[in-house]
Amino acid sequence: MRFYSGFALTNDQSFFENYLKHSEYTVAGFSYGAIKAAQYAAEAYERIDTLQLFSPAFFQTKKESFKRLQMGGYLKDPEHYLENFVTRCFAPYPIAPMNLGDNDAESLRELLYFEWTHDLMDRICAKGTAIEVYLGVNDEVIDVSGARDFFLPYATVTSIKRANHFLQEGL
Asked: Looking at the domain assignment, is residue 171 inside a domain?
């Protein structure tokens, strides 16, 4: 299994153990990592049976002012931005132990401005890859409703009640 971590995170796959398919033919990603996983699945030449997207970064329905505010906050004080970001990822529950990794403004820009397209999804589906999307209904980070509507024609979409961005239902 190939797993892509979320923005500024490392070793975050343990949060998704209850859902992960541990197969050499599975590609998975969380949040920003879901973007990377989908791009990989679309371009890869090897067999991929399942693409698992956990809380995929879905900001294409957000206003430009929201994206500029996020970028400005990061550029002004990356450490403070990441503290707030992690708090929102775990809300409404306490922050669980996790590991921060490398981060930079360009990755955040890619996350905020990435557009999930029908072409990307069609290319993945055309390879015979099954797509699974997992969304936390109480996710305070992404546009859950917009993501659900977008992915439904291409994927099995699982909405987890009371779950946050990390798909935690309570700690």
From this structure: no
Residue type at position 134: Y
Would you call 108 helix, strand, or coil by DSSP? Answer: helix
**If you ran DSSP here, which 8-state letter would residue 84 be given?**
H
Local structure of 5: helix, strand or coil: coil
Domains contained in the chain, number: 1
Rounded Cα distance between 128 and 130, Å, is 6
Work out the burial of residue 85: count CB atoms within 10 Å of its CB; fewer than 13 is exposed, 13-18 middle, 19 or more buried.
buried
Domain holding 140: CATH number?
A: 3.40.50.1820
DSSP characters over 7-31:
TTEES-GGGGTTT----TTEEEEET
- Domain containing 76 equals 2-160
Q: Could you tell me which residues come within 8 angstroms of residue 17 by beta carbon, excluding any fewer than 6 positions away?
A: none
Amino acid at 6: G
Question: Is the pTM here over 0.85, yes or no?
Answer: yes
SS3 51: strand
CA pair distance 153, 167, nearest whole angstrom: 22
Return d(Cα 97, Cα 143) in angstroms, integer: 25
Q: pLDDT tens digits, residue range 96-153?
A: 899 999 999 999 999 999 999 999 999 999 999 999 999 999 999 999 999 999 999 9
Alpha carbons 103 and 80: distance in angstroms, whole number: 13
